[in-house]
Amino acid sequence: MPSFDVVSELNTQEVRNAIGNTDKEIATRFDFKGSDITVELNDKAKTITITADNELQVDNVFAILEKQLIKRGVDLQTLDPQDKAQSGKHSKQIINLKDGLDSDNAKKISKALKESDLKVSASIQGDKVRISDKKRDNLQQAMAFLKEKSFGIPLQFNNFKD
Which CATH class is domain 12-97? Predict the structure, then answer.
């Protein structure tokens, strides 16, 4: 029986590349000259930390980072920016990265498919939702349906079996 998996995976290599490009752009910009600005990725905690001299610079660096992520093909729905914090003479912002499909979002996807007119079956299997049906056309309709819905996370479709 044909099936495919719905997952939400973060390409951390592309995030690293975007941070590297952000660092390069910061080094060449005149308005950041002489400023102490860092952009760091913590792979284990899945966070990006932006540190700068003031909040305006943090906002500008965040905008540069977003632009670089878009260029690298990383969906901005993976970003979960936290409130800025002032510590001493530096401003800091932590951005959490959403990676993987948690059980709440998996349930939302499954429920949305059941409430739709599509007659596909969805089963939650760990960090993915497997959708199956007898006809490939129904699976393609399910993909289109999920693409137009917004769940607050980027969705990818893989492991298509015929």
Answer: alpha beta
